[in-house]
Amino acid sequence: MPVPILLVTGFLGAGKTTVVNHLLAHAEGRRIAAVVNDFGAINIDAELIAGASDGVVSLANGCICCSLEGDLLRTLSTLLRRDPKPDYIVIETSGVADPADIVRNLMDPVILREALLETVLCVMDAGTPPAALDDALQRSQLRVADIVALSKLDLADEGAGMRMRAAIRAQRVPAMVVDAPHGAIPSALLFPTHVDRAPAPRTPGPKRPAEDRFETLSWTSEHPLSLPRLQQAIARLAPKLARAKGLFETVEQPGRQMVFQFAGGRATLAPGDAPAPGVPRAGIVFIAELGVLSKAELDSIMAACVADEKGSEGGIGFG
């Protein structure tokens, strides 16, 4: 029988990787193959990792995870040749990808013989302003979905989930809307229990010209950062950012890495692993719409974060 595919889509920072992490950590005996764009963001508990080779991480619970590099169809073909084959394949798209194009690729007759697109899941930050659904890319991600999962409800205000559900209904999409606390979604909704059930027909629509809408800017430093100064810098950059993430040491806590995430207007910090030898003391990747943020402006703002003395308090807070 063909292997069912779960396609996970959603905008930058929506929480897609959190959902995939939860699926892999709670596989319940299923052999799941996860194909992800940002391989390093997968953070399965260390005791689950059995080994890694050829860009594939094997997990002790029978799952595997590999990086989506190059051609999607070639990656799927490699997975389907594994022995034993996976029971399910999960594909996490880029936050700036139009899922209609990926659906179209999965309709390739060669793939259809061995793998069928079963479910499209769109992960959406519950705190997203409803007006954001007027964005063409986010509408496309929403309209191709069978299920919409509302993430980060714990970070949003009390009425956010209700407002987002109303905004989704206003888009007249047929998708089921569910809550996804900490990335958890009932597995029965995502994985078919009847192998003879045919997947829903897919009509991705006409192919549209590719549009480069976002750009990635990187910043590194060989010195630790001042946390108050970083807060001030992120407050200045926030209106221009779609997403940011990185690792750095602070002068306040030398020798300890912090994991930085910025999405949906919110910045968070979490403790990370010990710094690896030979890597910069700080490295952050920023994603912004083309032309909104120059490298010179970014470098100027971030240079003020490098610690030579304690900065003053203030700026955007970290959750």
What does this molecule look like?
The model is unreliable at 44-49, 194-198 and 309-315 (pLDDT under 50). With 319 residues, the chain is of the alpha/beta class. It folds into two domains: 3-190, Rossmann fold; 214-303, Hypothetical Protein Yjia, Chain: A,domain 2, CATH 3.30.1220.10. It has nine helices and 14 strands. Helices cover 23% and strands 27% of the residues. β11 (243-249) and β12 (257-263) form a beta hairpin. The relative contact order is 0.14.
Strands, helices and their partners?
Elements: E1 3-9, H1 16-25, E2 32-36, E3 49-53, E4 56-59, E5 64-67, H2 72-80, E6 88-92, H3 99-106, H4 109-112, E7 115-125, H5 136-143, E8 147-151, H6 160-170, E9 176-179, H7 187-190, E10 214-221, H8 227-237, E11 243-249, E12 257-263, E13 266-271, E14 282-289, H9 295-303
Parallel strand pairs: 1-6, 1-7, 2-5, 2-6, 7-8, 8-9
Antiparallel strand pairs: 3-4, 4-5, 10-14, 11-12, 11-14, 12-13
Pfam families: cobW, CobW_C
InterPro entries: CobW-likC_sf, CobW-like_C, CobW/HypB/UreG_nucleotide-bd, P-loop_NTPase, Zinc-reg_GTPase_activator
Function: Zinc chaperone that directly transfers zinc cofactor to target proteins, thereby activating them. Zinc is transferred from the CXCC motif in the GTPase domain to the zinc binding site in target proteins in a process requiring GTP hydrolysis.
